[in-house]
Amino acid sequence: MEIAACARLVKGYGDTHRRGLANFTAILDALVENPATSDPAAQAAAIRRAREAALADPEGKALQQDLGRPVVWLSKAS
Predict the structure, then answer these.
(1) What is the DSSP letter of 9?
(2) Smallest Cα–Cα separation from 54: which of 13, 5, 35, 41?
(3) Band (74; pLDDT cuts 50, 70, 90)
(4) Is 63 in contact with 31 (CB distance < 8 Å)?
(5) pLDDT tens digits, 11-28
(6) Are 50 and 27 in contact (CB under 8 A)?
(7) How far apart are CA 51 and CA 44, in angstroms?
(8) pTM of this structure
(9) Least C-beta-crowded within 10 Å: which of 5, 29, 40, 77?
(10) For the segment 24-47, what is each residue's pLDDT rounded down to a tens digit?
(11) In Å, how far from its chain's centre is CA 7?
(12) pLDDT at residue 10 above 60?
């Protein structure tokens, strides 16, 4: 359920969409594909905290602190 709720991160268009998608991908990479724990409840709580951090700060700084590593924004090649 927590993973599905992360879809709220991907919205808008342009830079807003790219930042949301990057936040979504960072959460998937760090907490879903490479979980620090095998406990489903702890994993769900970590995903929830990361999602809430990303929603609170669309620039990614709060999420970066929550995940403990940088979120890198890449510009689209023209």
Answers:
(1) G
(2) 5
(3) low
(4) no
(5) 999 999 999 999 999 999
(6) yes
(7) 10
(8) 0.76
(9) 77
(10) 999 998 888 887 788 889 899 999
(11) 10
(12) yes
Q: CB under 8 Å to 11, separation ≥6 — which residues?
A: 17, 20
14 vs 21, 31, 61, CA distance in Å?
Answer: 11, 26, 19
Under DSSP, the state recorded for 8 is G
Residue entry with tokens 């994993």: 43
Residue type at 11 in one-letter notation: K
Choice between 52 and 73, residue whose per-residue pLDDT is larger: 52
Which tokens is 71 given?
Answer: 């979120």
- What gap in Å lies between CA 39 and CA 78, rounded to an integer? 43
**pLDDT tops 80 at residue 58:** no
Non-local CB neighbours of 46 within 8 Å, separated by 6+ positions: 31, 35, 36, 37
- CA–CA distance, 60 with 74 (Å, rounded to integer): 13
